[in-house]
Amino acid sequence: MPCSSIPRPSHHRFHSGVGLAASNDTEVARLLTVYSPGMTVRSTLGRSPTLRAGWRTARRITRKARRVISRPVSFEKLPPKSTIRIAYQVMLGREPGPAGVAAHLPALESGATSRQDLVQMIRGFDEFNRSPGFTGRTLGHSIHSGRCQFIRGLPRAERILDLGGTHLYSDEGAMVGLGYPYRFKELVIVDLPSEERHEIYQSSQRLTEVETRLGLVRYQYHSMTDLSGFEDSSFDLVYSGQSIEHVTSEEGAFVFAQVHRLLCPGGYFALDTPNARVTRLQQQEFIDPDHKVEYQLPELVEMATGAGYEVVEVKGLNYAGDSLGSGMFDADEVARYPGLFAEAADCYILCLLCRKPS
What we know:
Elements: H1 26-34, H2 37-47, H3 49-70, H4 80-92, H5 98-110, H6 115-123, H7 126-130, H8 139-152, E1 159-163, H9 174-177, E2 186-191, E3 209-211, E4 216-221, E5 235-241, H10 249-262, E6 263-274, H11 276-282, H12 297-306, E7 310-319, H13 321-326, H14 331-336, E8 340-341, E9 347-355
Parallel strand pairs: 1-2, 1-5, 2-4, 5-6
Antiparallel strand pairs: 3-4, 6-9, 7-8, 7-9
C-alpha cells in the first residue's frame, strides 16, 4: 500500500507533543505515529472511558505489587510451607519431599515448632552433616568452623594465656569468640601493638580489660617471644591459635620453652598452625604474607618434645587426603571436610595438645 493510502490519524503529535509541520515528511511521521505502541494505547484509551478506568486500576495494582515485592520479607513471617521450602533450600540445597513437609508442617502451623527450631533440627540431620557444605571459595570459613571445634575441646582451666589471641570482630578475644565453653578466673591475651602487626591484622582499638560471660579478659601488647613478665607456673592453659607460624622457627622453639616455664605442672599448651605438607601443595610461597615458617607434623612434634612436653593429642583440621594422593591441591575437597581428623599429617591445619609433666 502506498503511503498516501494510509488513513490519517486523529492527531499529529509525537510523544514529545511537538506538532508535525506540513512537509514531504508528513506521511513518514504518520507512519511513526500509527505504529508507535504508546500512541496506539493512548489513542485507544482516549476513545474508551471503561478502558481508561481499567488501565488506571492496573497501574495502581502494578505499583503496589512492586512495593510489596521490593519490601524485605522476614523469615519469621513466611507461611509455614514457604518456611519449610526456604529452610531446605538453604540448609540442604534441595526442595523438601512430601515426607519432610508432612513431618514439619503441623508443628509449624500450631506454633509447637518455631522457624528457628526447624533450622536447628535440619542442622542435626545426617544429610546436613554429610553434605559438601563449604566450597573452595569458602575454605577460610571451613577452617574457622573446625578451629571452633578444637577450642571447644580444650581442657578446663582457671588461668589462661592466649598468644596472638586478638579477635578483629570481638572484644572478648579469640578463645571466647570461637566457643571455649568453661568459666575462668582470668584470660590474658598477648598480641603485638596494632602498628607493629601486618596491615591485614591491624585494628584501631587498644583494649585493656573486657568482662565476658566466662570471666575477665585482659590484654597485653608485646611480642609472644617475650613472656618474661609472667611468673613461673602461673597458667593452667596456654593457647597459640594460628600464631606460632608468625615467628621464626628459632623464636618458636623459644616460645615453647617459655610456655613450659609458665605452665603449672600438669598444665597444657595447645596450638594450631598450617600444615606445610598441604600448603606447599597449594602454592610454593607461604599462604600468608606475614608467615615466617610453616611446619610439617614431625617438626612440630619434635619441637614440643624437645621442650619437655608430652604430646597427648594430635589432630588435623580439613582433610586433604585426595589432594595429597593426586599431588594436586583441590580447594573444594579441603573445604568439604571441616572439623577434626585423626590423620593430622593429611590435613590442612595441625592441632597439638601438649602437657607439662606433673
